[in-house]
Design brief:
It is built from twelve helices and ten strands. By secondary structure, the protein is of the alpha/beta class. The two termini are 38 Å apart.
């Protein structure tokens, strides 16, 4: 059984290819747009005494790292783990990143110039009722908030959160909705992920993107991650799937998919779509995502208190 927080549209063909190439059947449990990947992480923790999952394919790293505290992940340093750079994997092999996305500004170019200066001015405007983000309780917006929290134990984030809400910032269910609002011109700009941005491009919308940068200038590069769940009775099959997902062939396949995932391990750059080659430099500036367990717990507790009011 694979628990998968990556979009079924992109993940299922990869898992079907694994079955075709190996003969190993895969059952998959996906999560919802609104709660992924937190929903599957919480499920894995609840099921600790009666585990049904063999491999967890998360669509980011935070959340997977939460499982370390619950001793739920099996170390495995196979051929796939070896090809991924150190900053995108656990040194003991308990999880490994691959095929990344970026957190980006999405801009409606009929409404706003897609330059860093214009975006900065738009974000500083007194009225933010034409800017949208996903509610930060789940998914990549939660990771984004956790990284901001980590800068100074939440002081700057709390002030920004209160200030942007006061100025009318629109909060919606997910990143895809942010993309829709900006693509239709209902909003001028927003925060989303690079894969959602490319849906707007493929739909012929007047949108452009710029990377979101944290204090200090780093980008937010969000790999998928894969881990084997402790207690699996399918260890050999699980290891084969992990190596398969972490291979150059699968990183290239995800790069060529409509989601334009960014390969992290060595690949033939000439085989990458132009859209993805453009993102590789931004991804190389991505901030380190390890060591955020305490910040994530504190940020999530604060957010839950904020939204339970």
């Amino acid at each position: 059984m694979v628990y998968c927080a990556h979009d079924a549209l992109y993940a299922d063909p990869i898992l079907e290819r694994f079955t075709q190439e190996t003969g190993i059947a895969v059952q998959t449990r996906h999560d919802t747009e609104a709660t992924k990947s937190l929903g599957l992480v919480n499920r894995l923790i609840r099921e600790k005494a009666a585990r049904t999952c063999d491999v967890f394919w998360n669509n980011q790293v935070l959340g997977t790292t939460d499982l370390l505290a619950h001793d739920l992940l099996v170390p495995y340093r196979g051929s796939g783990w070896k090809r991924i750079p150190d900053r995108f994997k656990d040194p003991r092999g308990r999880w490994c990143g691959f095929a990344a996305r970026l957190r980006v500004w999405i801009v409606n170019t009929d409404r706003l110039a897609a330059t860093a200066t214009a975006i900065e001015q738009g974000f500083a405007a007194a009225d933010l009722s034409r800017m949208a983000i996903a509610r930060p309780l789940f998914g990549t917006t939660l990771t984004h908030y956790c990284l901001l929290w980590h800068v100074d134990d939440g002081r700057t984030l709390k002030a920004m959160h209160a200030d942007t809400r006061r100025r009318g910032l629109i909060e919606v269910a997910g990143n895809a909705t942010v993309k829709n609002l900006v693509a239709r011109g209902t909003c001028d700009l927003g925060w989303t992920d690079s894969d959602d941005f490319f849906v707007g491009i493929d739909d012929g919308r007047s949108v452009a993107m710029q990377p979101i940068r944290l204090p200090g200038g780093s980008t937010i590069c969000l790999p998928n991650s894969v881990a084997i769940i402790k207690g699996t009775r399918q260890m050999t099959a699980a290891q084969r799937l992990v190596d398969f997902l972490l291979s150059s062939e699968i990183e290239l396949a995800l790069a060529r998919s409509p989601s334009r995932q960014i390969p992290l391990g060595p690949t033939d750059q000439g085989q990458l779509p132009e859209d993805v080659r453009h993102l590789v430099g931004w991804a190389s500036e991505g901030i380190e995502l390890s060591g955020l367990t305490e910040s994530r717990a504190a940020c999530l507790a604060w957010l839950r208190a904020e939204y339970d009011r």
